[in-house]
Amino acid sequence: MMKTMQRIGLTGGIASGKSTIAEHFRAAGVPVIDADQIARQLLEPDQDGWRALANAFGARFFNSDGSVNRSRLRKAIFHDDGIRATVNRLIHPLVRRMIHQQIDLLSDSASGLVVVEVPLLYEARWQGDFSKVVVVFVEKEVQIMRLVKRDGISVNEAEKVLAAQFDLKDKVAQADYVIDNSGLWEETLLQVERLINQFSV
Questions:
Q1: CATH architecture of 1-31+114-201
Q2: Mapping DSSP to helix (H, G, I), strand (E, B) and coil, where does residue 58 land?
Q3: How confident is the model at residue 14 (pLDDT cuts 50, 70, 90)?
Q4: Best exposed site among 44, 79, 104, 195 by fewest CB in 10 Å?
């Protein structure tokens, strides 16, 4: 009897360490789909997301060569609720469709497991798409510190970025599993490996 593919949603907050943890799943032989990577592909010239953005905003978020000015778009999303809502309404359904297409292609995967990294999983209300949801948690102070260091922004800017997402503690309250990434990386790895073993049973 064929084992049903387990769809694991991996989420958290910005600078919580989701992508690093996703890489560890990948290194362990688990297929990983990256929603952000799909979104970036959709915003390449003449792709569906690119066209949707051009129809909604004209040239506002485009460079002279026709490519999307990602830094300008990102800044607008974090500072303007209306723009964020419009972009999400346009892009999220396209990303979701491609995620499901990629999951279907993996239906014969030997691991019987696929991890989908979705930063805004709860914000987009996609939790019903997954067998289980794993939330990567760090304390807010750690998030801010990592974000300031990673993106070279001020503490005030980092706080605005965090304000555009659900509080991590709210995500933890809804999660099936939580990976606490606040401490040493070795401790985080042990948690990830335990989950991989549990999902593989």
A1: 3-Layer(aba) Sandwich (3.40)
A2: coil
A3: confident
A4: 104
Is residue 106 within 8 A of residue 7, CB to CB? The reply is no
Write phi, then psi, for 166 (nearest 5 degrees): -60, 150
Residue 65 region by backbone torsions, left for phi larger than 0, else alpha for psi between -120 and 50, else beta: alpha
Chain segment 46-96, per-residue pLDDT in tens: 999 999 999 999 999 999 999 999 999 988 988 898 999 999 999 999 999
Pair type for strands 6-11 and 32-34: unpaired
Angle in degrees, CA 149, 92, 170, rounded to 5: 60
Write the DSSP assignment of 7-22 as a string of letters: EEEEE--TTSSHHHHH
Answer whether 179's CB lies under 8 Å from 18's CB: no
pTM of the model: 0.89
Where in the sequence of the chain do the CATH 3.40.50.300 domains occur?
Answer: 1-31+114-201
| Per-residue burial over 162-200, b = 16 or more CB atoms within 10 Å of its CB, e = otherwise | beebeebeebeeebebbbebeeeeeebeebbeebbeebe
* Cβ neighbours for 116, distance < 8 A, ≥ 6 positions apart: 7, 8, 9, 10, 32, 33, 35, 99, 103, 129, 130
